[in-house]
Amino acid sequence: MAIAADNRIPDADFAFPYGVNSTIDPDIMPAGMVVRAFNAVNRGARWRCRPGHLQLNCLPDGELQGAFFYRPTDSASQLLVAVAGKIYAANAPFTEFIELAGLQFGVHSRFVHFCQGEQAVVHNVADDSLTLISPHSVVIIQDGITAPGVWDGTISGHDTSLPVGTVMAWSGDRLWVARGKRLFASDYANPLSFWEGQYINDQGLSIGAFIFKHDITALAEVSAVQDPFLVVFTRESTEAVLTYIRQRDAWNTVAGFITTLYPNIGCVGPNAWATFNGMLWWYSSQGLINLNAAESSKRSSEISYLDGPMVVSKRLLSPDLEGVAMGSHENYLMVSVPYSQKKNLHTWVYDSSVATAAAVMSAGWQGYWVGTRPVCWVRGTVNNETRCLHVSTDLDGKNRLWESFQPDRLDNGCPILWGFETRAYVRFDKQASWMRYADLHMADFTQDADIRVLWAGSARGPYKSIKLKEVKVASGSIDSALPLDAEEVMFAFKSQSRYLRTEEVTRQEITENSSDGVEHDASEEIDFGFQLLVLVLGPGSVRAIKAFGQPEAESRTGVCEAADDEFRGVRFDGAASKADTKAAVIEVLADGPVDYSAGASVVYTYRGVQAVGAGTATVPISANAAQRLADAIASMKAAHELVLVAPAFIGGGKVCQDLQAGADDIVGNEL
After folding, report:
1. Of 662 and 93, the one with more pLDDT
2. Do 157 and 149 contact (CB within 8 A), yes or no?
3. What is the pTM of this model?
4. Which of 36, 108, 476, 579 has its CA 20 to 30 A from that of 517?
């Protein structure tokens, strides 16, 4: 790293192609990589706000137990949701759910499981004959306790003739049902009959079900091969069943009909797997893995878990991983995990397109997303469009249905708080440097945004603010406050960019919780490297960062240092203190990092109907940013309420006036 003529040390990331990797020390991290990111993606080698979530429905209260995309034979796709033992169904756009009559599962069951099968045969109990029928789809529903439920798009109810179970899969034209260590297979082409019901073990003996060594946690079909097979997961191991062999009589004659694939790699829960880019991925008790990585464990004693770059989140996961939920959409893999609590607070995101562009598999990690707590991810096709949905028990305790990957990069029309933590800049030849300032090239602003940039030494000290910026962006030529007539020219505005330079670090006052005198005698602006924390509220991106430092002269003599004579403490965020007693240190550090909170309320009136919206927000950027977000939340709540209660109308243009001659109100008329 060269020193400029004015004694400055420049260090830059002119692109960010390598994603997140928190396993690498920031001081040795290569350019183009960051330590962590939240609510962000780096497709296109720039960090930007993640796609948004749109709330489609607020679901009933109670234990949220699962969801499923059902594709009936002769009608539109339906979304099924289980809450407190009841099953609800909705057609697109999924704004109105109906409760399915005749179905009641355990109110407190943690999971309700769904599986779609196709019935083409009917078993006649009277004479044990079989009748071919027109194939039609059915959904079987289980909770491991209650008699299985059946829904065919028209009729719903419990069927006591089916085996009670938990996870299920449709593979080889049979329904496979797990219950504890047992695995049952339905009759061929009939998920509603288990009449055949005999299984042959490896000694040739007839038994009532296939029995595994441990309780079955998940079932998944691997279909992207010539001969699809069923993967049977326990928490401790992974087995394969050759379900492509349809003839039951042949099961005991085929060598390896049931095979142990990976004796030491299992799956933690029923939703902890996904098919992503044609390959099976799943979450084991030790971490994320896919078939390729699992296969490599057969050739080496080392198992290559794929979530190492996410250790910044992984290290604080709850021991209870049964509720991990995975899903995929386009080139994105989502892994929702119980970070620091039992609910899935963090959703790790992996983008294979970024990994492919960088030619480095680990480069695909995008960090973690927050804002919802997914219980289950579902994906389906509606009107030839692939939709990615998830059901979530949110932080306020309410159950909601969300649609992800909204292109406006807003959550329900409100700006999203996002950001990232950089590698260490200005690392000059293993010599201490003096942090000066940084330049940021930002782009893709489509509406107002609030930006805060903070710095900290890579070895010590809390983050300290060196830039606060409000960006004002006109989003287009159409505005509700401006008149619009037939002659008006309408046009779009392009996204905007900004070049930001931070303050000089030396002009700042070091905070009272500085590490000076606690971890080192030198002031905090002297270190071997410096990291930036970039926080943004609203859509936008960071294209490049260039930081500047200055060499610091080093002492060339040794010194005899006295022992520490006080209690010293360093908080999780780097804030430090020392005092004569431990209690005094704790008292100083008890307040925690500063956040800004605000509240707002609005009243909208339309055609004599009033709607009130209230919003609160807490953000680490500024009081103005918190107020802007609270205002946006209140406005969206009021607007949503108004849509629900306001009377419908027909606009009062000339066509409507002609149709409704004599109408008094030319602005709008109630229907």
Report:
1. 93
2. yes
3. 0.92
4. 36
3-state DSSP: the chain helix, strand, coil percent, rounded to 5?
10, 45, 45
CB 253 within 8 A of CB 199: no
Domain boundaries, given as residue ranges, for the chain: 9-34+417-555, 114-184, 212-317, 597-651
**How is residue 586 annotated by DSSP?**
H
DSSP state of 361: G
Q: What are the tens digits of pLDDT across the range 6-36?
A: 778 899 999 999 999 999 999 999 999 999 9
**Do 210 and 200 form a contact (C-beta atoms < 8 A)?**
no
pLDDT one-digit tens code per residue, 597-651? 999 999 988 878 888 999 999 999 999 999 999 999 999 999 888 887 777 665 5
Q: Which fold has domain 9-34+417-555?
A: Jelly Rolls (2.60.120)
Residues 540 and 419: beta-carbon distance below 8 Å: no
CB-CB contact of 547 with 10 (8 Å): yes
The rounded distance, in Å, linking the Cα atoms of 573 and 288 is 28
Distance CA 633, CA 631 (A): 6
Q: Measure the CA–CA gap between 340 and 317, rounded to whole angstroms.
A: 5
Scanning the structure block, which residue is given the tokens 């919206």?
Answer: 613
What six digits make up the tokens of 220?
A: 């998944």
Task: Give CA separation, 512 vs 387, 431, 461, 578, 619, in Å.
Answer: 50, 27, 11, 11, 22
In the structure encoding, which two tokens stand for residue 37, read together?
């990111």
Strand-by-strand arrangement of the 332-337 sheet: 325-329, 332-337, 346-351, 365-369, 34-38, 417-422, 530-537, 449-457, 464-471
- The set of residues, in sequence order, having a beta carbon less than 8 Å from that of 561 and lying 6+ positions away, is none
Say how many Å lie between the first and final Cα of the chain, rounded: 72
Q: 534: exposed, middle or buried (C-beta count within 10 Å: 0-12, 13-18, 19+)?
A: buried
Say if residues 284 and 324 touch (Cβ distance below 8 Å): no
As separate numbers, helices (DSSP H) first and strands (DSSP E) second, the chain gives 6, 47
DSSP state letters, 92-131: TT----EEPTT----TT-S--EEEEEEEEEEEETTTTEEE
Dist. CA 187–CA 211, nearest whole Å: 18
Q: How many other β-carbons are positioned within 10 Å of the β-carbon of residue 239?
A: 22
Question: For residue range 61-88, what is the model confidence (pLDDT) as tens digits?
Answer: 999 999 999 998 888 899 999 999 999 9
Instruction: Give the span between the Cα atoms of 203 and 226, in whole angstroms.
Output: 29
